[in-house]
Amino acid sequence: MTSVKRYSPLPGFRLAMGYTLVYLTLIVLIPLAAVGTKTLTMGWEAFWAAVSSPRVVASYQLSFGASLLAAAINVVFGLIFAWVLVRYRFPGKGLIDSLVDLPFALPTAVAGIALATIYSENGPVGKLLEPWGIEIAYTPNGVLLALVFIGLPFVVRTVQPVLGDLEKEVEEAAAGLGASRWQTFLRIILPHIAPALLTGFAMAFARAVGEYGSVIFIAGNVPMVSEITPLLIITKLEQYDYAGATAVASVMLVFSFVLLLIINGLQGWMQNRHAKGA
Amino acid sequence: MNVQESLAGLLVGALLLGSASAAEITILNVSYDPTRELYQDFNAAFGKYWQAKTGDTLRVKASHGGSGKQARSVIDGIDADVVTLALAFDIDAIADRGIVPLDWQKRLPSNAAPYTSTIVFLVRKGNPKAIRDWNDLVKPGVSIITPNPKTSGGARWNYLAAWAYALKQPGGSETRAREFVGQIYGNVKVLDSGARGSTTTFVERGIGDVLIAWENEAYLAIKELGPDKFEIVTPSLSILAEPPVSVVDRVVDKRATRKVAQAYLDYLYSPEGQEIAARHYYRPRDAKVSAKYAGQFGKVNLVTIDDTFGGWRYAQKTHFSDGGIFDQIYVPGGKR
Amino acid sequence: MSATIALHAGSLEHAETASTREPAWVRVVLISIALTFFAVFLLLPLGTVFAEGLRKGWAAYVAALVNDDAWDAIKLTLITAAIAVPLNLVFGVAAAWSIAKFEFPGKRLLITFIDLPFSVSPVISGLIYVLLFGAQGWFGPWLQEHDIRIIFAVPGIVLATIFVTFPFVARELIPLMEAQGSEEEEAAVVLGASGWQVFWYTTLPNIKWGLLYGVILCNARAMGEFGAVSVVSGHIRGQTNTMPLYVEILYNEYNYAAAFAVASLLALLAIVTLALKTLVERQTRRQLQEIIEPSGE
User: Fold this and answer.
1) Fewer Cβ in 10 A, N or C end of chain B?
2) Chain A residues lying within 8 Å of B93, measured CB to CB
3) What is the ipTM of this complex?
4) What residue intervals traverse the membrane (chain A) (predicted)?
């Protein structure tokens, strides 16, 4: 439907497009360009020193590592959520369906203090885990936990509609041909929802890498151990190191942009597959 | 401030501070973390004093945060009439941008620090890890909470106090001090970005065996959260922490508030101001007030930053700049 | 990103037949996992906020909310949302109109740019305005000379909020308007309607639910933003503290009960947001079905 090119007789293109571009330029492009130009004034060596010092690299490892892991965890649980929401009936389903988006609607600072309270050594869940030697709050586990929390809706909400669209007949045919349920899942269902899972994964990952509010309350913020990259940017600012902060920010920006291009590509792929299937 | 004002303000890209009311003077005190309670009281007292003296109503607004972050705000243009920060280096950083004159510390008595404090330990009730002095902190299995010296002013005092202790021990040397402080940070469990964050971690979250903290912060924690839970341990040697204050010249000249800002800081040195500071567990400069509150503070041998470390600029450069000694000795990466 | 997708989600249920049903134990296990995860990860934090807020009793709860500082924070949050949301609403409509109804080169790139604020770290969203308007920034000296405040004042907070909520309405409307096509609008033009008339009488009724959905999400984020606003705020009590910042301040003042009390207001906002969203989703689905069904498959 969208691939048909056509001449539009509708009015308002210039006005709408002009406004869009002006607003986009003022609010997004010029401010982001400030990061670029500030970085350019640094010179290559200073830039490289700022973005590759051990502490900065450790923060990338934590931010990207924990975000990857959190996104992977979300793929598993997100799929289970989407699956039970689409396929099963059980009490409380409507409530769960609505509240899955809570991490999206709850301000991150609120989520942060709530999670820190729950998972610290004397919090309701932290207390239960402590005898087992499991520490969550103020360790890298805390970072992971917060990132799993904020990433969950992304996977559920990408997979849910695709799973719902899956034609039952195909599964029935597979079953008729003697495939077990597990085989049907692996060979039929999983390939069908794979692009959606991947998209959800990428979106959860993108969000997690930049996340700040919910993480800082629960991470120990120990340099080299539990200090995420966004916090490091703040830390650099507080040490009056504007250039350093901007350099690290520019690395993150480039990364976000590339990730976004990948996500948009994935979504295009999903739509195409969808169009073919229908 | 109402909606129309804000809308109009946004449209022209401008919104003037303090335009809300003409009859009322407002000044902004940009301060560091642990002074919230102190300045809440002090602002009220000074407001009354100023009204009695001049008839003007005065509203002192406050902003609190890590000392470095607050100085950053001033550098980035927050309209602070006065700054009351954790250490001289942060005001030096402001002075380097020409916002206050370079000799700001000479403009007020006692290094422009109307009250002092020092660094002590807060431990759990009964002192289960038997922490008496700095050398108890490096024992294996002691878990320490202190903020990050790169971002927190208080944390820099903590670090320097530990350094000074090691230096003044028999056979103490730079090498020995470096090793000792490295061991202390090897035992640090959570390195928050500000002093207040560390206190929260220790007190509310129940993490760690000992909190290295401002003396005033430790007393406040006990007062607010119960003497049945914590004890203060005063080490044998600590550092004389001088949290300095200054009028922000560029702002007061523009806003024409120099007189009231200056009076505000002078009032900190008055007996009333000193009394308020002492009540909030800052060590007063005034001899009389000091004598009156002497009983509330532990006995401790104090060294100064100028004598032991050659002043803040030097200490900052040697210890806390990127690649400085702190960066060299602090290599956690898993060892706890 | 997520919003567009969530729009089409919902209870698209499947008829069960024996051959495509998992064994009972698998179903029980999967449902249990989902319910446990739900309880621990979503319900518990929400419950904690209210429980901690009320820990010192109802009177303390009310006292935490009814005082000048809290009130100033609430007001500032409302003002910020009241400016940011309408601006992004107008932008969203304009962007969706030009992207969904017209073909032009560079469309994908434009959409990617519009999406950008979604994936930029909130910290960077604040930093960029410091680099522009801070005293050391591009326009800083000029602004100081003319005594104009942006950073550490309401305009800075509003700008940072606009940035982080920038794509919400646009991203909601673009797929919706693309799905709807432009036949109705074209017919209206042929019948002699002016541009504004086409928009008001043809397009707007078609997109109103999607629009509302975008506004709800945009508003929730605008009121709840923490990272970006924190960088540009300066944390002046009663002046530049929004509710999320005020929560942090109270939390740092040992005032946990009060922090959670204010946080509970924000949690309430999240709940209302989700309830409205569920409602609007239902309406949108209905509308989408109306579009899809008459045209056939």
Assistant:
1) C
2) 240
3) 0.86
4) 21-44, 64-86, 98-118, 138-156, 212-235, 242-263
